[in-house]
Each structure stands twice: as C-alpha cells, then as structure tokens.
Design brief:
Strand order of the largest sheet of chain A: 25-30-29-27-32-33
Oligomer: heterodimer
CATH class of the largest domain in chain B: Mainly Beta
Strand order of the largest sheet of chain B: 3-2-1-5-9
Largest sheet of chain B: 5 strands, mixed
Radius of gyration of chain A: 31 Å
Radius of gyration of chain B: 20 Å
CATH class of the largest domain in chain A: Mainly Beta
Structural class of chain B: mainly beta
CATH architecture of the largest domain in chain A: 7 Propeller
Number of strands of chain B: 23
CATH architecture of the largest domain in chain B: Sandwich
Strand content of chain B: 35-45%
Shape of chain B: globular
Largest interface: A-B, 71 and 62 residues
CATH superfamily of the largest domain in chain B: Cupredoxins -  blue copper proteins
Number of helices of chain A: 7
CATH topology of the largest domain in chain A: Methylamine Dehydrogenase, Chain H
Largest sheet of chain A: 6 strands, mixed
Chain lengths: 924, 332
C-alpha cells in the first residue's frame, strides 16, 4: 500500500482526525458494548437427552439442564464469553451460526473450554452443541439493538406499533426440532421457566408478547392461528414463516388476541407430515383479569421409568441407520444395562424399549439417519387413545404422541418395516408391566385390522419374539459361534392368560417373566454347502455388517458359486456406504448397481474388482434397482417418495422420475419392483397405498390394483413376474398373503393366504387349507419366479421359505429359514436348473434352495441344497476391516450372470458359455 | 390511484357484455381498453360505497379428480357469492376446482362465509373419524368461533359442516373481518376432515386476495399452489375477474408488456425453490430484486412482473424437478 495515503499534511489535519475518531468512538455502540461472561454446563437429562444448564464449576453444577438451553440476552456490539463444562459422555461444542465464533473446538467429556462470540448483528440466533444438538443441545441467543425499539407489532387497526424491551410483557422461545416444539417462557423480570415439549404458552388479551421461533435440523414452517406480524427486515405482513434446514430463527412480536379476541389459538408447524406427527400446541389468550398462565408440556424429568419428578414425562427415541437400534432410546445404553436390586442383569439387551406412566409422551427425532421415514403404530393396547398413529407420507423430522392408555405400543417405519421401537405404558397400580389394556383383559389391536388380540396368544408372543430378536443383536443367529441364545428381559409382565409355563392367576390377571421365552445354548450347526456348484457369483447385501472405516453399516459379500467361498467384501468406506439394500447388473455384467436404502443414493461398483465407480443421488430411500432388458436403462424405485427414477444406460445421473400416482394423490412409496421381460412395463408394490401399480417404462399409469383384500396396511412389498410376463406375484407383508395378478391388465386373479395353516391363538400348524401340505409364511417378503417360470420362492421374515407352483398357483412346500428371512433371487445351477438364493437379516448364512432337484418339473422334492457362510475368510479380498455383526443383515441378493428371461439373452458370449442351452433360452 | 377496481355491479355487467369476445385467442389489450376505462370510471364514482363491502359466500366441498382407479381428491366449489347484494358467482368455475375459488376482498370488507359438505358419508357417524370439512383462513380477523378447527383444538365447537367428533352441523358460518392491516394474499384450507389436521393435502385449499384500498391493476393474476408433486393453479382475468385454467401445472397466458401478478402459496410437506426462468422480481416488503425463492408450506409469496417473453415456471426441489413440476408462462 502507498504510504502517502496515510501521511497527513499538517498537524491541523491530525487534530481533526483525532477529534473525529474520538467522536465516532463515543457515539458508536462499541463505546457502550459490554462484555458478558456466561458459564454453562452440558448435562445428560433423566430420559437420556442432552441439555445445557446455566452455571457450573469444575466440581459439577447443581443447576437443572433445560431444553431449550437458557436463553442468552445481549446487546448488539457486546462480546460474549462462554465457559462450557461438559458433563455428558459426548463431545459438545458451543456455536452460534450467523455470528462470529472465535473457538470452534468441541469440548471432550469431563473437560472445560472457553468460547467467544461477537454479537455484531442484532437478531435472534440459535446456539447449539455442534454435533449432538438434535438431542437437546440448543438455545436462543438474542442480540437486541443497544437502544430504541426491539421490534414492532401490528395493531387491530392495522397500525404498526414499535415496542421497546420495557413494553414487552412476556417472551416465548419455541424451538422446532424433529417434529416437536421445545419451549421456554421469559417473564417481564427476565425469569426463565422451561415449558418443555409441545407446551401451551399463554398470555392475557392485549399483552405484548415476543416470540423467538428457532430451529435446528430439517426445515419447518411456523404458523400461529389468527395472529399476524412483520417478516423481519421487511414491511411484509405474514402469519407463516419458513425455518430453513440447518439452524434458523424468526423473531416477531404480537399483541395477544388483537382484533380476534380471546381463545385457544393453535400454533403448529405447517408441513403436513409434521402436523400429522403431532407438531402442534395451543397459544391461549385469556380475557383481561385472567392469569395468562402457560401450561407446561412433557418433561424429560417427568413420569418415566426412573424419572425424578411427578409431572408429565417424555421419553425420546433417536431414529438411526444403525442395525437393531433403528429407534434408539436416548438412554438406550443405560436401559440395556439395567440390573435388579442385587446387581443382576435384567437381560433387557434392546435399546429400543421404554417404559412410561399413563399421560406421558413418546418423542422421536430423526437425528442419526440420512433417509426419510414414517413413525407409525404397529400395535397398541385395545382402544388406546391417539391410536393408530401415523403420517400420510414419509418425511424428515420426528414425531411426538401422548400415551394415556396402559399397555404395549410398538412403532415402526412404513418404509423400513423392521425398524421397531416399543413403549410400555405401565399403570403403577398393577404389579408387573401391562402388555395390553387392563380394561380389556390385557389385549392389543394390530394395524392390519386385528382387534382385541390376547397378549397370551401365540401370535402376540411371536410378535414379542420378533421385537426382541430384531432389536437385540445378542439374540441373532451367529453360525460362526455354533450356539444360539435368546434372552428376554427378566421383567414381570401382565398378559391375558397363561401361554407358556405354569402361570397362575394371582387374582388380578396373569403375571410372568418374559424370560420364560428364553432359548439357552441351542446347537447352531452351520450346515453344509450345496454339493452341486452354482454358476458365477452371488452378491449379497450384508446390510448390517459394520466395518472400521465408516460410520454407516453395510457391506456387500461376494460369494464364488463354484466353491461357495466368500470371494470379496465391498464396504466402500470412501462414501460411507449406508445400508446397501438391493442390486442389479448391467448387460455385460461389468457394473453392479446398488441402492443405499437409508440414504438417497445408488452406487455403481466395478464387478471385477469391487471398486467404486460412482455414487449418485436418486431420491430418498431408494429400495430396488433393475434394468430394462430392452435398453439397459436403469429403473430405481424411490421407496421414500412417489416415483421411479430413470437413468439411461451408460450415464450417471437421473433424467426423470416416473410418478407412481396421479398428481396430488397419496404417495405410493413403491418398494421391490419387477420389470417385464420385454422392458415395456414396470410393476411396483406400493407399500403406502396397498396396491400393485403397472407403469409404462416411458411413463403412464396403466393399472393400480388393491391387494390384501382391502385391509388397512396390507403392505405389498415385493413383486415377481412370470418369464413371459403373463402373471404378477406380489407379497403382502402384513396381510401374510400372496396376490396373483394378470401380467397385462393387472387384474387380481387370486389371493393365497400364507397363514391359513396357522392358528394365531394356540400356534398350531396344521393343513387347515386342505392343500395336502402344512405350509406357513409369516411376513412374506421377496418373491422371485424361477427363470423357467415353474416355481415361486417366497422368503418370509417369520422364518419360512414357501414354494408355490405356478402351474396351479398353490403352495407346494414349506422349508425352514433363519430369523429375518428376507431376500430371494435365482441363479443358474451348474449343469442345468436353478438355485434360489435366500438371505436372512438376523443370521449370517446364505440358504441355497433347489426348487426342482431332479428337474422333472414337479416341485414336491424342493429342498434346501445347502448353506453358505457369509463371514469373511482369510482369503477374502476386502476394502475395509469388518468390525462388527459379521455377515449379518442379508437382504438384496443377485446372481451373476443374470439368467432371467429377457436379460439372459443379452449376456456376452463368455458368460453364456457357462450356461446350458436351456438356461440360455429359459422359456423356449 | 385511489379508486376501487372491483366494483361489483360494473364488473358483472362487463362480464356479461364481453362473453362473446373473452375467449378469442388473439384478443388484444387495446380492444379491451375502452371497457377497462368504463369500469374504472364507474368504480371511481361509486368509491364511497365500495369501501366496506359485505360478502355473503356459500361454498361446498365434494369429491373430484378420480385417478381412473377409484382414488379421489377433494375440492371446494363456489355455490354463491354476493357483495352488497350483487351476485358475482359467474366469476367462478361452476365445478369444484383445485385450488378452490380465489376470493378477492378489500380491506374494510366483512365476509359471512357458509361451508356445506357434499362429500359422500359426510353425515354418517364414524367413531374416531371426523367427516367435517371446514374453512380455516389465514390473515384476516375472526373470533374463535370462526377458526374452522375441531373442538379438540379450539375448545368451543367442531367448526365445520358434516359429522364431527363432538358436533354435527349441516352447514357452518364463519365471519371474517377484513380489517385494515390484513392486505395480502392468504391461504384458506380445511382443518377438520378425517382429523384435526384436515385434508388440505387432498385438495381442500384455496386463496383469498385482500386488496388494499386503491390497489394497482394487473392484466392477469395467477394463483399457483406448490404441492408435493405439482403446481395447482388458476388464472384470473384482470378485467372480467373470471377464474379459469384450474388444475395441474397450468399454462399461464399474458399479453406482452402487461403487468401480471403471481400469488404463490406452498402446501404439503416439501420445501420448494421456485423460479420463473429469466425473470427477476421484488422480494415482497423489500427493495431487493430476486430470481428465485425458497417457500415452505402455507407461506405466501406475491410478486409482479412485466410480461416480456415466454418462460417456464418451475420448482427446483430435487425430486419435484425430476417429476416434471413445471409449467408454461406464455407471453404473446
């Protein structure tokens, strides 16, 4: 820089400059600027959520941590020094997005750190914990102008009236997080009072009330009925305001009830899914002379298991992408480790179970997931208030619901229907935890239409079993260990009758310990590999296997079908590959396409070396992927949304989404589709609308057919098609049935009940449908048709494989499967015929089914040909180190070469060489 | 300009007089001008009377938009609208539409709006399910009995037409005080059908436009609701006040160099990024020119442009863009 600029010609100028500086300094707000010193402590609340408390010392703070954290009021130009003590088990920071933060390091557990924030701009800002903030580490940081009005309100006559801090009668901080409001009331004298979750703030008519609405995480719109205010920094009058994703805020002032009078005026988020998820409260305007007292919402200190205070309580589940703990109680580790009075483990194991008193609430926050979800009730005590609970579409956010009726509530995500969270609402007056509604002899209702199911019934016990296995990896079948243990909590529960063991009626119903269901040291032989090799490779999405190099779960296990060994593990740590769910392969079998079901991407993988080619955004919760045999273009069904993403062959971005429903109609949320052999039609099971849709590959809705006999929530989940596309098979997960439809018109021709031979009360299996076979398929999922069109193989999550003969469309066989039986797909058997490869979520082996061992077309001799371990060996190639749940989570499965009719004809010559003539021409 | 544009008697007369020409494709602005001046002049004369109009409105709700497979949406239909006794019902579509009728008001007006319910089963009691439809309006003044919510929310009444959880009404009347300070475009929507959240997501939504006294005139007004997979829109002719082109991603028409106004309201769960290719406009309430806007459910965003050239309006939300949430703005 030129020094001359700064040289002043004479001393007079110097003096002038000096005076100017002095004057500027005196009149500037900086001259009045204060330096603040706040001490705050991050703590863990009784329900496991995290929060900030005002105050703290090295020795610990007695102050109560609150959500939102203490509101910090400063003036523009102030310097704010914050000393943060961290008494939580997580790293916690202090950050105010939008202002200048001088220290961005997070404080380690047990440590203390100082942060400085320059309050250089007026406004309301969110401060937060920089990492775990969605669990409660957030608060309002309010910077007012040093003097003059702080805001203006719109009077009943339309005039805009400025207000100073002294004019404000009360202030409310409302944080929008997940799908829950968290409130604080600030009285005129500055006293702060926590209002907790979904409170009903109140005021007296004509009070001047200032609202500070803030958010962290996914976006919202805030709406308050019958009031209007100025949009900050504009003269626009609004009554609804967007809070953008991330940290955002909006402050406004109203005169309570002006022009509209007294009343209970609803405030809510106006995102429709969030409204359905319970994101609302009431702003009560009392008449003059009323007390204008706010009503506190659900508190983390309230009436929950081990809660310290006698007030309505709140438990919180984090929604995660983590195997088993998809709904993870914020205090899940502590719950799983609970002991009795003698220090003996209660064997709770699951982190997805909570216990509350009637009138307390359960809260969900999608804090650790990259996908969209629903929070939907699966079962609840008969007649329970606020049930069923759910949302029309999947979304990002959370949910909150008050539970008044005692009994067991199980929640799931409709998109990912094995995500489970359970809450027992226990009447403290009865001994043992109530599993059903005490007023109906402890029965429960199920979402798929079953009412008053006794909790002593076999079906109820199976559901309980499914919950405790699904949510506790300790209860999974690890074939490398050779033994299997299932331990249920040793908690006394109260049910409808005496299902197992000699449980006596104690005069007040039946009470037993769940551990009566335990399986102890059962032998778990791994099983032999098939005698006859398969052709090529079998790719299995071991969706729950954890590796050291990435946070999200999931690998792909490549089995060499010639010797049944694990050839390779593909983890893709460089993209934090998240829950790989389903695959397909391009025409020349060189590229594997793989969906990340708990994310919004598909991944292209080099089949030869397992290396990443490209990670591509396609839409939320992509479930299945297939090519059109006619063009090799990619079809990806977007399970969390309302369409099918199309990606032309040889390209790496989606060009369009084919809608799965007419405009404005409920999102179909398609899951496991199939494509006709000529590539002209895409057939989807629509989990959200309980129908099967047929769509033109270039667009257009050709048919939509309801399945599951119109029960609510039948949940069609997967499609199989005849090799000539003449028939469609669809499994209905929660209706436990197989629908058969005309492949061209979509007309329903038959519904096969897969639990006809099951007695849900006593659990007996018998040939009740009189077809000569005892066969049951509980919770059926994948349903491929063999490439020669003879057999349908159904993998049923209840632990069965059911085989249906396409000639008669009747069940011919049931074979045993492992817990969480899920995926199925066909590959070529060496020398002719086909294997069905069946995967299991909660075991770590692949089951190889031979539907027609002697190749005579009669499926009566269908059998399990063998088992293949999905655990890596020393010889397996890999791109990351397996760190947990080895070989678990089997879901999508794909045999290479792809031998389905329509695709097999397009194989390169060297792939065809490994196939018999019949396999190359499966329906000739 | 201090005159009232929407003078009722004259607008109605004009509408009748112009029936023969209003759908002529190459109808020019110049040919309309004498009529416009006639309307304006008459409005000016009657200004005092028009300051505080009394609107009597009857709306109903019915099922519509069968997707061909038996799935239906819901929609509002205008039955009758008079202002100070003058019937202006012919401005509206005779059919139920999505969005519902756009109700144009002026600061100072009073509205008595009655909702009816023509949805099948509306008066059949179903335990735990509300069959009521309501009108919950934003922006204007009303007391708690005109909130258009269920009793579980407002603590007074199930404020709609049909069988509610606690009360059944064959019809329900709301009173709105279109007070000073409420000028702007605001949504109205159902809050009662099936649950206390209502069924705005099934098509039960519309807009009110509250004009300040002496508001400027626009050749065309477009109401565009941004849904989760499409725009639901309509066009209002500035002269005849006729509402047309209802439905999904409508092609909006404008005469070159005319001033037109867009009324955007979002609805559903998505947050949208709206653009009108090649155009800039003033961010409402500011002097800032913008070329795109983030808009969340039930927010409104109103802006004016001079129609210069044809363009596309669209939502740049990732999935909605791929789903084809786009429409034409045709300038001729």
């Amino acid at each position: 820089m030129n020094n001359n600029i700064f040289k002043l010609r004479n001393s007079v100028s110097m003096l002038t400059v000096f005076i100017l500086f002095a004057v500027i300094f005196l009149i500037s707000p900086m001259a009045l600027a204060a330096t603040h010193y706040f001490t705050i402590t991050a703590k863990t609340l009784p329900n496991g959520q995290l929060g900030y408390a005002l105050g703290g010392t090295e020795g610990g703070s007695n102050a109560e941590a609150v959500i939102p954290g203490p509101a910090l009021f400063v003036k523009q130009g102030d310097v704010v020094n914050v000393t943060l003590f961290n008494e939580t088990a997580s790293e916690v920071g202090f950050k105010v997005p939008g202002l200048k933060n001088k220290n961005t390091t997070r404080t380690r557990p047990g440590q203390v750190q100082k942060y400085t924030v320059l309050a250089n701009k007026a406004g309301t800002y969110a401060y937060h914990g920089d990492g775990r903030e969605l669990l409660g580490l957030f608060g309002a940081f309010i910077v007012d102008k040093p003097n003059g009005p702080v805001d203006s309100y719109i009077n009943a006559d339309g005039s805009v009236v400025p207000v100073t801090q002294a004019d404000v009668d009360k202030q409310f901080v409302l944080f929008m997080v997940g799908s829950t409001f968290w409130g604080t009331e600030i009285a005129k004298d500055g006293t702060q009072k926590p209002l907790w979750a979904n409170p009903n703030p109140a005021a007296v008519e004509n009070d001047i009330v200032r609202f500070h609405v803030l958010s962290v995480g996914p976006g919202h719109t805030f709406h308050l009925h019958a009031h209007r205010w100025l949009k900050t920094g504009t003269n626009e009058i609004i009554d609804t305001k967007l809070l953008k994703e991330g940290a955002d805020s909006h402050a406004f002032t109203i005169k309570a009830g002006t022009g509209v009078g007294v009343g209970d005026w609803q405030y809510h988020c106006h995102l429709f899914a969030h409204m359905e998820a319970g994101m609302h409260g009431s702003f009560r305007v009392d008449p003059a002379g009323g007390n204008g007292a706010s009503v506190v919402g659900a508190s983390p200190y309230g009436r929950i298991l081990l809660g310290p205070k006698d007030e309505p309580g709140l438990v919180t589940f984090e929604v995660t992408d983590e195997p088993a703990s998809w709904f993870r109680s914020a205090r899940g580790d502590a719950i799983a480790a609970l002991t009795d009075a003698n220090g003996i483990s209660l064997d709770i194991k699951t982190k997805s179970l909570e216990v509350i008193s009637p009138g307390s609430s359960v809260n969900f926050v999608m804090s650790d997931t990259n996908a969209v979800h629903t929070i939907s009730s699966l079962l609840w005590p008969t007649g329970a208030h606020h049930m069923p609970f759910g949302q029309t579409d999947a979304y990002r956010g959370g949910a909150i619901v008050k539970l008044d009726t005692p009994g067991l509530y199980v929640f799931t995500c409709k998109v990912h229907p094995y995500m489970f969270g359970a809450v027992i609402v226990d009447d403290p007056a009865t001994e043992g935890l109530d599993l059903g509604n005490p007023e109906t002899n402890y029965t429960v209702d199920l979402v798929a239409g079953i009412k008053e199911l006794p909790t002593s019934s076999d079906l109820a016990v199976r559901l309980l079993n499914t919950f405790f296995i699904t949510t506790s990896p300790d209860n999974w079948q690890d074939y490398s260990s050779g033994i299997w243990n299932v331990r249920f909590p040793t908690l006394p529960v109260r049910i409808s009758g005496a299902p197992f063991g000699n449980v006596a009626d104690d005069g007040n119903g039946y009470k037993l310990s769940l551990s009566a269901l335990n399986v102890i040291n059962a032998a778990l032989p791994a099983g032999k590999v098939p005698l006859t090799p398969g052709v090529g490779e079998v790719w299995v999405n071991t969706q729950f296997e954890k590796t050291a190099g990435k946070y999200k779960p999931g690998t792909t296990t490549v089995v060499d079908a010639s010797n049944w060994t694990v050839k390779r593990k593909v983890a893709l740590p460089q993209i934090n590959n998240n829950n790989p769910h389903n695959m397909w392969v391009n025409r020349d079998q060189s590229v594997i396409y793989q969906t990340q079901w708990f994310d919004n991407k598909i991944t292209m993988i080099n089949r030869e070396n397992g290396k990443l080619i490209k990670n591509i955004r396609v839409g939320y919760a992509p479930s299945h992927v297939m090519t059109l045999p006619s063009t090799d273009d990619l079809t990806i069904v977007i399970n969390g949304e309302n369409g099918i993403s199309m990606m032309p062959a040889g390209t790496t971005s989606v060009t369009k989404m084919l809608p799965t429903q007419a405009h404005g109609h409920i999102s179909a949320h398609p899951h496991g589709h199939w494509v006709s052999a000529d590539g002209s039609r895409i057939v989807t099971p629509n989990i959200n609308t309980d129908d099967v849709g047929i769509y033109g590959a270039t667009g257009g809705i050709q048919a939509r057919t309801a399945t599951g006999q119109n029960i609510p929530g039948a949940h069609p989940v997967a499609i199989g098609m005849m090799p000539d596309s003449s028939k469609i098979y669809a499994t209905n997960l929660l209706h436990h049935s197989l629908s058969v439809l005309d492949g061209n018109t979509g007309a329903l021709t038959k519904t096969i009940n897969l639990i006809a031979d099951y007695d849900p009360i006593n659990g007996a299996f018998s040939d009740k449908d009189g077809n000569g076979e005892i066969a049951v398929g509980v919770l059926p999922i994948q349903v491929p048709v063999s490439p020669d069109g003879k057999a349908v193989v159904i993998a049923a999550m209840g632990g069965q494989i059911v085989i249906v003969d396409t000639a008669t469309d009747s069940i011919v066989k049931m074979l045993p499967c492992d817990p969480g039986c899920h995926g199925a797909n066909f590959g070529a058997k060496q020398g002719g015929g086909y294997y069905a490869y069946v995967t299991n979520k909660f075991s770590n082996r692949l089951i190889v089914v031979d539907p027609d061992p002697n190749g005579d077309g009669n499926l009566n001799d269908a059998k399990i040909a063998g088992y293949v371990s999905l655990v890596e060996s020393a010889e397996s190639a890999k791109d990351d180190t397996v760190s947990g749940l080895p070989g678990f989570g089997g879901q999508g499965v794909l045999a290479v070469p792809n031998v389905y009719n329509g695709w097999v004809q397009n194989l390169p010559a060297h792939w065809k060489e490994g196939l018999t003539t019949a396999q190359q021409n499966p329906i000739d | 300009m201090l005159f009232q544009l929407n003078q009722l008697c004259c607008a109605t007369e004009f509408s009748e007089n112009s029936d023969a020409t209003q759908y002529t494709p190459h109808h020019t602005w110049l040919r309309k001008l004498p009529m416009v001046w006639l309307v304006l002049a008459l409005s000016f004369v009657l200004i005092a009377k028009s300051y505080a109009g009394e609107h009597i409105i009857r709306l109903t709700a019915e099922e519509t938009q069968d997707d061909g497979f038996g799935n239906k949406l819901l929609a509002y239909k205008m039955l009758n609208h008079t202002i100070d006794g003058v019937d202006i019902t012919s401005r509206y579509s005779p059919a139920a539409t999505i969005p519902g009728p756009t109700i144009v008001l002026t600061e100072g007006d009073t509205v008595y709006l009655t909702i009816e319910n023509a949805i099948s089963g509306a008066f059949t009691h179903t335990p735990g399910i509300s069959k009521q439809v309501s009108i919950h309006v934003h922006g204007v003044h009303y007391d708690i009995l005109s909130d258009g919510t269920l009793k579980v929310i407002n603590k007074h009444d199930d404020e709609g037409a049909g069988n509610g959880p606690e009360a059944t009404h064959t019809s329900y009347e709301y009173k709105w005080n279109v007070a000073h300070g409420t000028a702007g475009t605001w949504p109205y929507h159902d809050h009662n059908f099936e649950s206390h959240n209502g069924s705005e997501n099934k098509g039960l939504f519309g807009a009110i436009i509250v004009k300040p006294i002496g508001a400027p005139h626009y050749a065309k007004e477009y109401v565009l609701y941004l849904g989760d997979d499409a725009f639901w829109g309509m066009e209002i002719d500035g002269v005849t006040q006729k509402q047309s082109k209802h439905g999904v991603n409508p092609s909006l028409g404008a005469v070159k160099n005319s001033d037109v106004r867009f009324h955007l309201i979002a609805m559903g769960t998505d947050i949208h990024k709206f653009v009108l290719d090649g155009y800039q406009w003033l961010d409402p309430g500011t002097h800032n020119l913008i070329h795109q806007v983030l808009i969340g459910p039930l927010e409104k965003h109103v802006f004016t442009v001079k129609a210069k050239n044809s363009a596309r309006y669209m939502d740049n939300n990732f999935s909605n863009r791929l789903m084809g949430m786009v429409g034409k703005f045709k300038v001729q």
